[in-house]
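PROTOCOL LOG
Step 1. Enter all chains and additional molecules of the complex.
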Amino acid sequence: MTHSIAALLAQAQLPDSDTPRLDAELLLAHVLGKPRSYLLTWPERQLAEPQVARFLTLLARRRQGEPVAYLLGEQGFWSLSLQVSADTLIPRPDTERLVEVALQLGPQHPAQILDLGTGTGAIALALASERAHWQVIGVDRMPGAVALAENNRTRLALANVQFLHSDWFAALGQRQFQLIVANPPYIAADDPHLQQGDVRFEPASALVSGADGLCDIRHIIDSAPSYLQAGGWLLLEHGWQQAEAVRQLLSERGFEAVQSWQDLGGHQRVTGGCWHA
Ligand SMILES: C[S@@+](CC[C@H](N)C(=O)[O-])C[C@H]1O[C@@H](n2cnc3c(N)ncnc32)[C@H](O)[C@@H]1O
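Step 2. Run joint prediction.
Step 3. Record the structure below.
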């Protein structure tokens, strides 16, 4: 039996994946420690038995539904390559919209920025990489996520970001921020999507927020004013059907200029308000 790159990719079966060829190429390139372009350049190259065995093992795990990012151990976000783990969510392209809005609305001058539920550190690290004059704090309740974010910070050599273990605002003391961003858990506990696809492998601590999915968002909106300077913004990512509810919660709490922003799919994905009181 031939173990050429072309033959292995042709035989790879991933019937439940939306992107079977891409997944197989990413996994094989990972096993070989090469870029994907190598596979196209050297299709006839024969692989050693241990490489073939490793590829087939990863392929079998992918067939069970394990996300490619967990199998590779990394995921691209913004301009950064981030390590990922089962302690937290795999960063999503939709969340880059939150980064864009934060960069537009955030202060031009040196400022303190807070990222609640930082996970891999994706949002905090993206903001810190774009704004050297911002000091960014990222917090997470999961110690494994805080360690992962710190590891990503070290690999990216970003000095203007710090990660803390905290249950939302609990460990922040008297700190005040000019901008608070969050991509908190926002899925309802009985949402059937939790039993489908890649999210089955991601922790409930990163996904689920009470009966209606808004439990953490309510808490954040209620508490944030104590930590925002006058004129500071709170920006929240949420589910595509939650924008109206989030706008209402912000308005009821006294936020001004409340508005939503669309993601690439045209869904209202980010909602925020400015605190003046
Ligand atoms: C949807 S994930 C977002 C991760 C990351 N910010 C991103 O956008 O990829 C939500 C994160 O919030 C964290 N989290 C959940 N409850 C929390 C709490 N009470 N306090 C702090 N972080 C919490 C989870 O551990 C998880 O890392």
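Step 4. Note key features.
The chain has ten helices and nine strands.
The CA atoms of residues 35 and 206 lie 31 Å apart.
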